[in-house]
Design goal:
6 helices; alpha+beta; Rossmann fold; 6-stranded mixed sheet; Ubiquitin-like (UB roll); 3-stranded mixed sheet
Amino acid sequence: MQRNNRKKVKFAKHHKLIIIMMCLVILISLFFLLPIFRIRTIEINNTVFIAPEAILESAEISENQHFLEGMGGTLSGFFSGRYMKAEQKVIQEIPQVADITISYSFPNKIIFDVDERIAIGWIKIPDGFCTIDGKGVVIEVLDQEPQDIPIIKGITITNLTLGKCVEVEQKEYLENAMFAMSALIEADMDSEGDKLLYMIDVIEPTINNNIYLRLNVEDQKLLIICNKSRDLKNKFTWLKQVINSDVIADKGSGTIDLRGDTRTFKPDTNGGE
């Protein structure tokens, strides 16, 4: 009788364990199979120049995948719901991406927050053209002349790699050009109206630290002289307001000097030629 009771107790324990295991298998199966745990929406923010499809392809993330697929990379990345391996892959493969955060949003959404590199200008190279951002990082190498951004003159490239800072002979020239164009982009972002960036044809730093910007505003040719000053952004904001308000539209081509405390306009006596 005692032996039979022991067998019954042992059987009951095994039976209970089997039931628990089956419940766990069912729960795990439901966790991986239920639609609520699969990605239904992908949101990509802050992309202007980069095609969202290119970012998705590089990240290897798609709709209907399980939200845990690819999550983590590190322990902190997992607990913060980030896809860090996908982030690193995008940065490595797409030079236009300066930084990116890919994160899970409950219940079934993945959000891409992209920090794009903005091209401030281009430099001629022996076999084509390369564009750079405000930190001198090479964004693209092209076989056709880029549109809507200026050429940076007086710069000779010694080495370039996509996604890395360009190496040049005239470091100070390039630094001055990048400083001026970064200030100009900030002025464009902080104020409304036509973008100054798209009006500039040429950036030309000089040996005396002056920076020349050549603009075309419809039929009016303007030469802007500036230097590496702390308030250059404010001066460009003023310049943008002057151009967009047509204050000098009837004065013909000429030179605008933004150096020092005063801002002067000098008409071109030969019509800007």
